[in-house]
Amino acid sequence: MSPADLRALDIYEFAKSGRQAAGALRVSQMPRMLAEVPSEAPDRDTVFTWQAEGSTQPELQDDGTEAPQPYLRLAVHGSVWLICQRCLAVYSQHLDVDATYRIVATEAEADEFPLDDDEVEVIVGSRQFDLVDLIEEELLLSLPLVPKHNVCPEAHESLLQGSADDEPDEAGAQDEAAKPNPFAVLGKLKQGGSDQKH
Ligand SMILES: [Zn+2]
Question: What keywords are assigned to this protein (predicted)?
């Protein structure tokens, strides 16, 4: 699918005919994502791969009849450069999106949909649906609230130094060990007792 097609997708037809599509999007094609990438990143224009799959589920309508309810499943994978908030170095953050959407016709219908379903999100469909916009929106939502390394390169060293800070505890444990064992003392008393017998 061309980028133009992706921005004007007949999502109802896509779902109804159970179509599948896949492709790659560069961060530079998603301006709001690009704005999140620091200028000092080694490669700001990273690539995300995506897969989309349409489907329908027969569902009971308000009028009591069954009708095919359109759904869209979307998966997006890739990495983006962010600034670690702990050590302030740029690092590569992997992002994964796997979402299922119930496609409704109007905002009002979307508002009616119960929010207690964590598995399914609701989107308002269109004959000219912007799939790139949806992918960008999901990537923005999947960004960590506080970007940071799992283990910072510098913080790792300070962690090692931090173990030195634990010394008082270890010293305390050694003090425990250095304290005479009460049973050993008892043994010595017994020995003393036996000595006295001679
Ligand atoms: Zn870090």
Answer: Ribosome biogenesis
